[in-house]
Amino acid sequence: MKPVAGSRSVPRASIYAVISRIPKGRVATYGQVAALAGFPRHARLVGYALGALDDESAVPWQRVVNARGRISPRGEESPMAAVQRFLLEKEGVVFDTRDRISLSRFQWDPRDDRPFGVRPRPRLGRLPATVPGSTPRRGARRKIRKDEEKK
């Protein structure tokens, strides 16, 4: 049975656990958090869970943004959007002139928990068969042999 959006049966703990894994300087979308928590296509559940957080919570709620890379609007009187932006900028997240975050640059990849700015070591793979002095891959060797037999 799927949980009802406003019900208390929503397992908020799994949503909070996912959000707690987002490192400083990274953001995740509501849909991404929902999918990782086991509720694909239920981004609103994440919003409801975040709305239920206590003010003193250690869950880094500010790291969740909408699918456009923007801070989701709240009630007209709420200052929390400005607070969220301040906290994200303090962590090194950059907003463009249209108040968006570049998700290609700042979106969290759960397979890679390095904080922003720490670069991965380059992968050393095989050289392509066309590079002089390299050993061709198995399929490339067959192609080279066939080409030599034709000559």
The tally of domains stands at: 1
The CATH first-level class comes to Mainly Alpha
Q: Roughly what percent helix?
A: 25-40%
Provide the spatial order of strands within the biggest beta sheet. 1-2
| Mean model confidence by pLDDT | 82
What's the Cα radius of gyration?
Answer: 23 Å
Unreliable stretches, pLDDT < 50, 5 or more residues? none
Question: Which series of helices and strands comes N to C?
Answer: HEHHEHHH
What is the fold-level CATH name, i.e. the topology? Answer: Arc Repressor Mutant, subunit A
Number of strands: 2
User: Which band does the percent of strand residues land in?
Assistant: under 5%
Biggest beta sheet attributes = 2 strands, parallel
Please name the defining characteristics of this protein.
single chain; 151 residues; mainly alpha; Arc Repressor Mutant, subunit A; two-stranded parallel sheet; elongated
What do you see in this structure?
By secondary structure, the protein is mainly α. It has one domain (1-113): Winged helix-like DNA-binding domain superfamily/Winged helix DNA-binding domain (Arc Repressor Mutant, subunit A), CATH 1.10.10.10. It contains 6 helices and 2 strands. Strands 1-2 form a two-stranded parallel ribbon. The radius of gyration is 23 Å and the shape is elongated. The termini are far apart. 22% of the residues are buried.
